[in-house]
Fold this sequence. Notes:
Blueprint (H helix, E strand, L loop, with lengths): L2 H13 L12 H20 L1 H5 L8 H26 L5 H9 L17 H21 L5 H29 L3 H20 L11 H6 L7 H18 L10 E3 L4 E3 L5 H11 L3 H14 L1 H20 L1
Antiparallel strand pairs: 1-2
Helix pairs in contact: 2-4, 4-7, 6-7, 6-8, 6-10
Amino acid sequence: METQNLEKIFQDKIDHETKIEPRDWMPDAYRKTNLRQISQHAHSEIVGMLPEGNWISRAPSLKRKAILLAKVQDEAGHGLYLYAAAETLGQSREQMIEDLHSGRAKYSSIFNYPTLTWADMGAIGWLVDGAAIMNQVMLTRTSYGPYARAMVRICKEESFHQRQGFEILLVLSKGSDAQKAMCQDAIIRWWWPALMMFGPRDTESTNSDMSMKWKIKRKSNDELRQQFVDMIAEQVKLLNMTLPDEKLCWNENKKHYDFGEINWDEFWQVVKGNGPCNKERLAARKKAWEEGRWVREAASAYAAKQKQKQQAA
Ligand code: BYC
């Protein structure tokens, strides 16, 4: 069939909400942009374990430690579903990981900030997972089947993550003056980076037009960011804390909160590799990859042996 016809059938499927599956014909650019987004999403989950991993051994109680450990393990699982979804588009996991380690592939800017106190575990759960869910609920309806199905399961786990984060902050917000101050400080430090997670302004978003046409994305970066601000501006009141933005105020005409300008220079610096922890994060991932080599080799040797045994039988 001619490419023009194939493209028409493909776009018709998308317009009629039929999922695109791995064996279906798809334009190269659709394959590439899904591969880019899904692999970057997978990398974000994997690198995203590091800031919280830093606190597993320092959690304030056994219960908190068990919860945090479970959350970080969930993130590893999310990374693995997403790598598996990306592999269906024809790229090997080794190549994706090589792209992460060489700096060719991106991961979310948010994970390049340090976790300085226990309250950061609360702020990450509430704000970072909160921003992630806002974006990921939309992705459960993304047009590429394997990505959409992975997101359904991931979203269920993320909503628990967000609640556990909020609960950490709620406890601190009712504690001693020092605990209250720690809670407020974490909110101040994580607020602006959390808003940056949604990506550049719509006018600067290079991929959005095609991703919207192909229903990879269904809401724009700015729309989701606004939805997030509206939600958090209300929830912060329950903590008796404030967000670090003097311009934050309810706009009765728009029925939305107005908010101040994001520091876009900081955002692009972090994306380009110059954030506070970029080098540390990549070094930690490369070290883990090298130190895990023997495990991968042993697992492959075992699988090959099992296969041989089955064939012999
Ligand atoms: N950080 O054209 P745009 C989690 C890049 S982890 C870095 O708007 P797009 C969790 C963008 O890639 C969940 N780079 O892009 C884990 C593009 O560059 P390339 C993380 C960013 O793709 C552990 C350029 O800027 N969530 O929940 O249409 C603990 C122009 O942007 C960022 C996901 O990964 C950024 N923040 O839209 C706790 C969601 N923003 O690739 C929690 C999946 C933009 O052309 N991803 N860039 O070189 C998406 O939904 C979309 O990729 C984005 C950006 C909305 C992020």
